[in-house]
Design brief:
heterodimer; A: alpha/beta; seven-stranded mixed sheet; four-stranded antiparallel sheet; 14 helices; 13 strands; 12% strand; B: alpha/beta; three-stranded antiparallel sheet; 15 helices; 33% helix; globular
Chain lengths: 456, 529
């Protein structure tokens, strides 16, 4: 109970000041029959710092972490090197233990960071503005779809089949309660994404078209073509970026006609964390600012006329308009946004470009090595840092067998697209700057060994 | 007044300084630092990371998509980066500096052990889609935490996915909607009392329901009779915050639950204030069907200037089958599975008699692992005995504040029974022209973060003070002394309060200007049109 500073004497003195005899008198409004008469049964009593650390350490050791083995997983979560200064700075107590900056005079640090973060995201995405972050990429994607409905007053959304299937599921879950959806359920397995099926589905009822860039198979498609088709029908283009490092060398979606750009910011400054916390990025055109979900920081002045920052436009939000609110979001991913912003500041535009080119380079080396494995066929005509391959048998089994050989060799398309038999042998492979030549060779050799038993 | 000297030098003077001293060239004042924006400090060619040379040039088929030049993002070398963010951090108030008594927000001490365990590589450096045989420890954390949450709330199951409290609300309401629809019962209305959190009505509306308010009684609780009168076959459920936003326990919650259930609806409880009752009463025993738990509040994970949060939802037996994918389940062989779309049906048949009927996926991956490890470490540190003490100490501290200040500030519900974890005051009784805002800004000059202001809406000029259980008596006494002093100045009409705060990096910030002319991103002055 080392976190509880009150002593027995303190408690006695405070009860006397309050004018009650016992602590349970303060729980008088809890119905007696529901009150617990002692500590919850079946749960252990308090433990020392050392004991808790030992217990958690044991649980941690019972995982194969990415740093221990050759590692090739991506599909919406990416392993990048995080400079030591990022984690050091976000642990400064004034950042770590601050709340939402409701009192701007004593929260200028957090507020300036959020303003810088918004500016960085807008510049990276090529959008006019950006918000101060959402939960993650998938929920940001849903929020973008909902926003497009408010803007266009239409409720049919066209989702690309090559949108991350978990993002598709998230949008569909929410849309079940609010909207009609048309979705291309499966990506076509071919070298380059084909926009024709997507464009054919856009009509006068379409609120938005959602396209991932690069897409779930790692392919970099023609966004401008979809943007033009969407705009011709009065629909918005929502571009989804799950790997923001790609934008270090690829054109920004906003510059290719996207009206809203959302993304997962985990790649920059935030670790894999087994799926969370992550960082939802959200940028859009200036004219949609009052329809935009989430928190915004704006520039203003203080009583002395000095540049200051403050949370603003909160009348769009839950705490003012209640049932008329455009979203129920009450928070952002402040600390993850801080990590993103610090890492992005360390990189700068030039550093990000170079990092992106190293990622691309390692992916090419990986693809070349895998192409030498008998029975393996590379699908992509182009890619940034991940690509799909076809194996001679079910990739879910191969992934498990590779793990037993201490290689974490990608994400099977069968796991991402259950029930799609034609994708069962597909494997999504990702390389980043953390991937070494030794890792690549170990992966290639392990795959050769596994598949040679198949007579491939 | 200084006369110009021979060189023509004439100082500009600090406006708010007691002694006439010149302005500094830097804008800094000793340790009160001015810090430029990164856009004014660095350029795209500055870099604080050494990156390998790429071995390959780009693929020909990518050339049409390549950037002509790097993204216009400023970079800084590592020393400048460390200074920039360190200097910014000093313009912030955090719980590490002192009490942070924001009501309804629960700002308690942030144990550093929790930070340490969250960074263990088996949790921080594992991928959400790794084969489950390689992440049994991480799944073990989720299962162990889930077990605790169920035990502490007396519920049947728990959905771990939601990424924050409001996301948890949405999850709970979607479970309710799914359960009703499974019965072919399409109800349209959700009832939300006035004393509920602001997110509650927004959530119900976002889930497709029409929201109707239920009034509060004069003693700050849900009006049971008004609620009963509104119940009917069109009401899907009710959202209640308990303890509520007035800091009071909803005495009638069991009666409310019984009435709602009798009318065929479900009870959603906002568990944001669970730290006030943890270990003392289990919401399941009061008839609650769904309740989110803000792990960052009850089980202390860092707020980080706004997030991230985590909002697992505990569920009754009636709602548990409808929770989101993926979920974890331990089979008889001791293996913990992560049940996703691919296996959901088979798993349900084999292990749940076909009864799992998830409403689907509500986020890409399986929740806030980084928060789960922190919350589990906090729970294990306190144990069953310590968590009970948590509730008792936070309630004790809040009542101590209520009784110590009710002679100087109006406490509208002081006669309505003990408060729970937070003490509520109003600005009635201050001098003409003085309000809650003046007290808040005055408290900043005293060196404290202010309480929550103007919330809940049902109280005029509300001041909601939540000391939490990690404040010492001495610290609370100092906070009380400062609050008393500022309140007395406001009652006496001390004009200097109107211009507070005086001792901060920024004086009173113009929020109206920010909303009227939104400037949301940095624009290079040379690019101004």
């Amino acid at each position: 109970m080392r976190y509880l500073p009150l002593t027995a004497d303190d408690r006695t003195a405070m009860l006397a000041k309050i004018g009650v005899g016992a602590i349970d008198d303060l729980f008088a409004d809890v119905p007696e029959e529901a009150r617990l008469d002692g500590p919850i049964r079946d749960l252990p009593m308090h433990a020392s710092e050392m004991a808790v650390e030992r217990h958690m350490g044991r649980l941690s050791a019972n995982n194969l972490n990415a740093g221990q083995v050759p590692f090739f997983l991506g599909a919406g979560a990416y392993r990048h090197h995080i400079p030591a200064s990022v984690d050091h700075l976000i642990q400064r107590g004034e950042f770590l233990t601050a709340y939402t900056p409701y009192q701007p005079e004593i929260a200028q640090g957090t507020l300036q960071v959020l303003f810088e973060f918004q500016s960085q995201v807008a510049r990276l995405f090529g959008t006019d503005i950006a918000n101060a972050s959402l939960y993650d990429g998938s929920t940001a994607c849903w929020e973008a779809v909902a926003m497009a409905g408010r803007i266009t007053k239409r409720n049919r959304v066209v989702l690309s089949g090559a949108l991350h299937p978990h993002y598709t599921s998230t949008v569909k879950t929410m849309a079940k309660f609010t909207k009609d959806i048309i979705a291309d359920a499966m990506p076509t397995i071919q070298g380059l994404p084909d926009n024709s099926g997507l464009i054919a589905r856009i009509d006068d009822e379409t609120s938005a078209v959602v396209v991932q860039y690069p897409d779930i198979l790692g392919r970099v498609g023609n966004l401008q073509e979809v943007a033009d088709a969407a705009h011709a029908k009065g629909a918005l283009l929502i571009a989804v970026v799950t790997e923001p490092v790609a934008l270090g060398m690829l054109k920004a979606p906003g510059a290719l006609g996207a009206d809203v750009v959302v993304g997962e910011g985990q790649s920059i400054g935030v670790g894999l964390n087994f799926g969370g916390p992550y960082l939802g990025l959200f940028g859009c055109r200036q004219k949609y600012v009052r329809q935009m979900p989430g928190r915004l920081c704006g520039e203003t002045v203080d009583a002395d006329g000095k540049r200051s920052f403050v949370l603003t436009l909160s009348t769009r939000e839950q705490h003012i308009r209640r049932e008329k609110a455009t979203s129920n979001i009450c928070t952002n991913s402040g600390l993850c946004a801080l990590a993103f912003s610090i890492h992005m500041t360390l990189l700068g535009g030039g550093g990000l470009n170079k990092l992106a080119r190293v990622n691309h380079s390692r992916a090419r080396q990986t693809a070349e090595r895998l192409a030498q494995v008998p029975g393996v066929r590379i699908i992509n005509d182009n890619y940034f840092n991940e690509f799909a391959v076809m194996l001679p048998r079910d990739a879910r089994d191969v992934v498990r067998e590779l793990a037993d050989m201490d290689v974490l060799g990608g994400v099977s398309l069968g796991r991402l697209y259950p029930g799609a038999d034609q994708l069962a042998n597909g494997l999504l492979v990702t390389a980043t700057e953390t991937t070494t030549a030794e890792d690549i060779e170990a992966f290639g050799a392990a795959l050769e060994q596994l598949l040679s038993g198949d007579g491939a | 007044m200084n006369a110009p000297n021979k060189s023509g030098w004439k100082p500009e003077m600090h406006a708010d300084s007691a002694a006439p001293v010149p302005l500094t060239a830097s804008g800094d004042r000793g340790l009160m630092l001015e810090e430029k924006l990164i856009f004014e400090l660095g350029g795209p060619d500055n870099c604080g990371v050494d990156i390998d040379e790429p071995e390959y040039d780009v693929m020909p088929s990518l050339s049409g998509n390549l950037r002509a030049e790097p993204a216009p993002l400023p970079g800084l070398a590592e020393p400048e980066t460390v200074r920039h963010y360190t200097r910014l951090s000093r313009q912030n108030y955090g719980i590490d500096l002192g009490p942070f008594p924001l009501g309804s927000c629960t700002m308690k001490h942030n144990p550093r052990l929790n930070e340490k365990v969250a960074r263990m590589p088996g949790f921080a450096d594992v991928h959400p889609l790794q084969p489950v045989q390689t992440v049994q420890g991480a799944l073990g954390v989720i299962n162990e935490l889930a077990h605790w949450l169920i035990a502490l709330t007396g519920m049947y199951g728990v959905a771990m996915t939601p990424k924050a409290g409001a996301h948890g609300e949405l999850c709970g309401v979607l479970c309710i909607r799914s359960a009703l629809e499974a019965k072919g019962d399409a109800r349209e209305v959700f009832l939300v009392p006035e004393s509920a959190h602001g997110t509650n009505p927004a959530t119900a509306a976002f889930a497709g329901y029409r929201v109707e308010n239920i009034p509060a009684t004069p003693d700050g609780r849900v009006d049971l009779e008004a609620l009963k009168a509104r119940l009917g076959p069109d009401v899907a459920g009710v959202m209640i915050t308990n303890p509520n936003t007035c800091g009071l326990f909803e005495r009638d919650l069991k009666a409310i639950s019984d009435a709602v259930h009798a009318a065929g609806g479900y009870v959603y409880c906002d568990g944001a204030n669970f730290n006030a009752i943890v270990g003392k009463v289990r919401p399941g025993d009061l008839g609650v069907d769904a309740m989110h738990i803000n792990l960052h509040k009850t089980f202390s994970t860092p707020h980080g200037g706004g997030g991230p949060g985590s909002g697992p939802v505990v569920l009754s037996e009636a709602l548990a089958p409808y929770g989101p994918l993926p979920y974890t389940a331990r089979t008889k062989d001791g293996v913990i599975h992560l049940v996703e779309e691919a296996d959901a049906e088979a798993f349900s048949e084999e292990h749940f008699d076909g009864n799992m009927r998830s409403f689907g996926r509500m986020a890409a991956f399986q929740g806030q692992m980084g928060m789960f490890t922190r919350a589990l470490a906090y729970i294990l540190s306190h144990g069953a005995d310590g968590l009970r003490q948590v509730a008792e100490d936070c309630v004790l501290n809040a009542n101590y504040i209520l009784r110590s200040l009710e002679d100087v500030l109006e406490a509208p519900y002081a006669g309505a029974g003990p408060c729970m974890h937070e003490a509520l005051f109003s600005d009635n009784g201050l001098a003409e022209g003085f309000s809650t805002l003046d007290i808040a800004k005055g408290l900043i000059d005293e060196g404290f973060h202010p309480m929550t202001v103007y919330f809940p809406l049902v109280v005029h000029g509300a001041m909601l003070i939540e000391p939490t259980e990690t404040e010492s008596k001495d610290g609370t006494d100092r906070l009380i002394a400062s609050l008393r002093s500022v309140a007395e100045r406001a009652v006496a009409g001390d004009e200097s309060l109107h211009s507070a705060p005086h001792f901060t990096p920024r004086r009173r910030v113009d929020e109206t200007l920010a909303a009227r002319k939104p400037v949301l991103v940095y624009k290079d002055p040379t690019e101004e049109t």
